[in-house]
Amino acid sequence: MRVLVLGSGGREHALARALHRDPAVTALHCAPGNPGTAEVAVNHQIDPHDPTAVVELAGRLSADLVVVGPEAVLVAGVGDALREAGIACFGPDRAAARIEGSKAFAKEVMKAAGVPTAAAFVCESAPETQAALDEYGPPYVVKDDGLAAGKGVVVTDDRDAALAHAVACERVVIEEYLDGPEVSLFALCDGVNAVPLMPAQDFKRAYDGDAGPNTGGMGAYTPLPWAPPDLVEEVMRTVVQPTVDELRRRDLPYVGVLYAGLALTAKGVRVIEFNARFGDPETQVVLDRLATPLAGLLHACAIGGLDPAFRPVWHEGAAVTVVIAAEGYPENPVKGDEITGLDEAAQVPGAYVLQAGTRLEGDRLLTNGGRVLNVVGTGPDQATARATAYEAAAKIKIRGAHHRSDIAR
């Protein structure tokens, strides 16, 4: 199978790594990829948001499957263009991707499907926003209605800060606060059926101790030994399948990964949000534990015929990923600092490094984004995997920058 992965971050490096290890994959390409994906695939410097360029490249490569990583690529309609050209694509069409592209649309779908979620108001003016904030009270939850790369949500006890965030957005969804631990569950969908992957937990705050500004994600781990044993099947029954069924009823068949961000509240499971792509950095740990070859699963989604009774096989043990971010992330990340120590980090038993915001200048690896590297540690349990990830992360040096990271305790 000839596979093309679209995107350039740590999630795409994790996807490329998993596909590279699949014996069914005979040729692997990334567009545009990063220096890390270049070690396992052929990179192509095109804009993945350009449907015409992507279709041309996929055709030239005779790709049997195109795997879309970032949400903005989906919202740009790349999935639509690939399917119109007769090329199998793992990733929903633009209309179905609105499940992430519009929080208001997601709420509408959940209400119609009977999916448990937080009560919410959609607000487009300051008076509407003020009334909604007063209705729910603190902690205030304000979500930008559009795409925001995982950073469009503010949860705060400060009403002025909540109002300021709302005013800065054209349209917001203001919700009641959901208590309880958060869980990410990915489901692979073919438009009709869905198969779950292993749940994970990620951490959004920039600094240790769950402090600092919200980010796209600073670390993750799986499995979740504390989660209820029937959690996955409950979520598939009450959240994922009803959502897939509702989208199909609207003639918006959902093909790709449906990412359910969940809160395990005192009143039961509630959906915080849906995303239309693999989560970052949860993908890095979930795919590390996946023993079932990935390409066949994604291809079955793209062409239809996914067996709803199938359950993937998982490696024993645990995986933890630590994000190393650039100085100033998330507001003003520094670019151009030199990265060293990756070879030393990779020599730590049970650890490896995935690249995200990096670029090459000659033979020097430089920072080129906010989240620069993902250090993955594995082991028989979470504590061992976490210690391994931090041991490997300590080997990495970024000249001229001080870095903070945060993962599960």
Features:
single chain; 409 residues; alpha+beta; Rossmann fold; Dna Ligase, domain 1; D-amino Acid Aminotransferase, Chain A, domain 1; 4 domains; five-stranded parallel beta sheet; five-stranded antiparallel beta sheet; 22 strands; globular; disordered C terminus
Write up what this structure looks like:
This protein folds into four domains: 2-90, Rossmann fold (3-Layer(aba) Sandwich); 120-175, 2-Layer Sandwich (Dna Ligase, domain 1), CATH 3.30.1490.20; 180-303, D-amino Acid Aminotransferase, Chain A, domain 1 (2-Layer Sandwich); 318-398, Phosphoribosylglycinamide synthetase, C-terminal domain (Glycinamide Ribonucleotide Synthetase, Chain A, domain 4). It has 13 helices and 22 strands. The chain has helices at residues 10-20, 51-60, 71-75, 78-84, 98-101, 103-113, 126-136, 159-168, 231-249, 282-289, 294-303, 342-346, 382-393, and strands at 2-7, 27-32, 42-43, 65-68, 89-90, 120-123, 140-144, 153-156, 172-175, 182-190, 194-196, 201-207, 211-222, 255-265, 268-275, 318-325, 338-340, 351-355, 358-361, 364-367, 371-379, 397-398. Strands 3-2-1-4-5 form a five-stranded parallel beta sheet, sandwiched between helices. Strands 12-13-16-21-18 form a five-stranded antiparallel beta sheet. The longest helix has 19 residues, at 231-249. It starts with a strand and ends in an 11-residue tail after the last strand.
